[in-house]
Amino acid sequence: xxxxxxxxxxxxxxWLDKAIEWGQATTLESQKDVCLHLPQLQEFLHQLYExxxxxxxxxAIQQFPLIGQLLGRLCWNPFVVGxxxxxxxxxxxxxCLYSSEPQNAVExxxxxxxxxxLCHLLSSSKWESNEAETSTLISALGYTSADYYCHxxxxxxxxxxxxxxxxQFNGLNIQGSISASRVNAVSIFCVPLITLPDLTPLLEALxxxxxxxxxxxxxxxxxxxxxxxxxxxxISLPESAVFSLWLRHLPSLEKATxxxxxxxxxxxxxxxxxxxxxxxxxxxxxxxxxxxxxxIVYEIFKNVLMETDGTSGVTTTIQVFTQLFLQAHxxxxxxxxxxxxxxxxxxxxxxxxxxxxxxxxxxxxxWSQHLKHISDMLKALVEDTNVSSLTDLFEIxxxxxxxxxxxxxxxxxxLKAAVEPDAVLWLLAFYYCPVNENQQRTQTMVEAQAVYxxxxxxxxxxxxxxxxxxxxxxxxxxxxQCWNQRLTTHLLTNFLLxxxxxxxxxxxxxxxxxxxTDTSKxxxxxxxxxxxxxxxxxxxxxxxxxxxxxxLQNLTSKV
Length: 559
Description:
Blueprint: H1 12-22, H2 28-52, H3 57-63, H4 67-75, H5 78-81, H6 86-97, H7 105-121, H8 124-130, H9 132-140, H10 145-167, H11 180-190, H12 200-208, H13 220-231, H14 239-248, H15 250-266, H16 272-282, H17 284-287, H18 291-307, H19 312-331, H20 349-356, H21 367-382, H22 390-402, H23 405-416, H24 421-432, H25 440-458, H26 470-477, H27 485-498, H28 502-513, H29 517-535, H30 542-556
Helix pairs in contact: 1-2, 1-4, 2-6, 4-6, 6-7, 10-12, 12-14, 13-15, 14-15, 15-16, 15-18, 16-19, 20-21, 21-24, 23-24, 23-27, 24-25, 25-27, 26-27, 27-28, 27-29, 28-30, 29-30
């Protein structure tokens, strides 16, 4: 057999004959012959790969009609696969034969066959169960089976990653770049192996690789599999790779956003710190620093808000997300930071900038003036004759809802500070009643002013009873509930939290107004937002913090 060791460089027929002769190397003679020819075979496979790597699957098969038979036979020979870089070269050759856009049943069948071979090459369980010779070979090499396959996988991954990174910025050099079909084939090969820890560097390299193609070169099954594994915490990838995944595959971003909302609404979270923690863990607030991701996420939020009729739980969730987004945006490198206009391109920019200023960024003495500024801009915008449709009005309302932190500050400042009540009340009235059809908002303003005046008069009283608040309570719990039931709830809850006499009757009063589930959720979300704001501000009031915690404990069972 030794005399055959020297052969022509690309003698395809010679190596096909050898592959048929060797079979799966089950005899001692065939095993010896395989070992004698392994260096030359590896050289042949490398040259074969260099010949077909830029030609495409159709041309490659036309040039070598029996290439599938040759590669298929070699893939099932454990001595060939176990030698040096032969396994890697076999896999690259198979990737070159893969049709990224199969045109007929034959190509579909060929793709399926290639996938099965690729999976087989990294499936140690199949080899160990069916090939006793493999164990012998591994033992002879001085490895345990686990070590051997671990080394194979690591070497393959390192090789793939190196080539992808070397070609990342070589898109203009056509001869030196990786073809889109090859990258597509590698992504398919990764699908059944997504959760393999050693594959993580390759997943990252693929997600960050774009090449010179305007079309998506990674297969959708790969992108979906990676996203599913991320959501189920089966794998962990760097933020840059996750963001790249969501930027290049819209369904994955949509699924990640809905998964986050489902998480938040399906479990009992006792504080907004816990909500913020779940959000940060999802990476979506950080990813939203990219305007394209931000706009998609907020479009989903908007749809959920419409489907739930603007329930306080959903708006609270959106407000916390917005605060985390602003935090991530402020922490961005100045050279990479996008202006706010990139996130809200069709909105009134002075209003966006005003709402985006966090309360803690301003002295508390300036809050009242800032609230009036926001209210004046908003009122001018809403009363603009160009804002005629309900869609336009909803877009403005949604912008205010996203930055709802200022609404809570508004309700607090109305009672605690010297403010222009009409401007601040109008801001709250617009939020709770954005549509002025049949003078609804006008009526809301009239009733809100009456409630406000009554509460403001009682604010300094230290000795209060429920009778003193009967009128406000009736507006919330009465049969003929007023237009501004939610606004009255907001004002009354803040009165109880911040007035000296309100602390004493807070528990009893809130028990009275939270007999219905909807009102319980409303009050719960108001209190949980206030607690979150207190925990993230320099303002300290131990009595209020203690009361907030007590109220949250009592309300948790109701929501």
